[in-house]
Amino acid sequence: METVTFIASKALWMVLAPNTAALLLALLGLALVWRGWRFGRWPLLLGLGWYALVFATPIAAWLTVPLETRFARPATLPGPVTGIVVIGGAVDQEMTERHGIPALNGAAERMTEAVALARRHPGARLLFAGGSASLIPGGPTEADTARLLFTDLGVPADRLEFESESRNTHENAVLSFRVAQPKPGETWLLVTSASHMPRAMGVFRQAGWTVTPWPVNYTTMGGYGLDYFGPFPTRLNQAEWALREYVGLLAYRLMGRTDSLFPAP
Question: In sequence order, which ranges of the chain are alpha helices (DSSP H)?
Answer without folding.
Answer: 2-16, 18-34, 41-56, 59-68, 93-99, 109-120, 142-152, 169-180, 197-206, 232-254
